[in-house]
Amino acid sequence: MPTDHSYPPLPEPLVVGVYDNHTHLDPPPSTGSGNEEGEGPEREVLDYLEQLDRASSVGVRGVVQVGGDVESSIWAAEQAAREPRMLAAVAIHPNEAPRYDEAGRLDEALAVIAELATRPRVRAIGETGLDFFRTPEEGRAAQFRSFEAHIEIAKTNGLALQIHDRDAHDDVIETLLRVGAPERTVFHCYSGDGAMARICADNGWYMSFAGTVTFKNAENLRDALEIAPRQLLLVETDAPFLTPTPLRGRPNAPYLLPHTLRFMASHLGTDVSMLAAQITSNTELVYGTWDSEPVTAE
Ligand SMILES: [Zn+2]
């Protein structure tokens, strides 16, 4: 049976709105040329404004658009400056840091991130952190250096930190405790277990749950969800990745966030609107409000 690569239908709208605190709506770099004879099925790519319109129509009030290299961070900062439904997070992704370092351009890239961090609608530094799954041993020194530099930029500018942690829980926690975590620290796409959720809770670190919490084999995430204090919960899509069950294999998008939120509420045995209200309040504490800065025509 061929996989369905089309966007799933709109879910039933939420009564109380939420924000998607981690998504990637920038156009893929391959757009524009040489794509005619690409391998595999053509994936439909929606324009970010269409994405935001669909999101609004189901109660997803806004997004944090997350950069992972110089170009996507600039894109995030520039769109957020003129789009009221978007705030930006900027960073060099932990898997990109070794590449910049090899090219002798990591310091230059970090300087761009430090400049973007001063803009009013850039509200987080991320995604940064450690990824021992994709980056081999020899890239890790650059990854640590980049992570620590990002923590410093977040603290200097009073911004939230969005952490990407893949197979690196102990080292991420050790680094945060050693250099001092920013006041608002978020584990994006939380991937730890219940024991780690206790460590996060003790330190006041936020846990942002993605579609992975709905996956059949993700018992560890559901344990963590039960342990995480409600005032430290956030929700995200990490679109276009990690589409929630039962839509796996199809592209993810912020308008699909209600599936994950409803799953979380049902697992916790709580009312969807109560959970949405709590998460929205948490989200605004971490990033500020979406409409608190005038939107400028840059
Ligand atoms: Zn991401």
Structure description:
The protein is an alpha/beta fold and 298 residues long. The protein is built from 10 helices and 8 strands. The protein has helices at residues 48-57, 70-82, 97-102, 106-116, 140-157, 169-179, 194-203, 219-227, 257-268, 272-287, and strands at 18-23, 60-66, 86-90, 122-131, 160-166, 185-187, 206-209, 233-235. α2 links the parallel β2 and β3 (86-90). The longest helix is centred in the middle third of the chain and has 18 residues, at 140-157. The termini are far apart. Residues 31-40 have low confidence and may be disordered. Bound molecules: zinc ion. Zinc ion is lined by residues 22, 24, 66, 127, 238.
List its traits.
eight-stranded parallel sheet, 298 residues, 8 strands, single chain, 15% strand, binds zinc ion
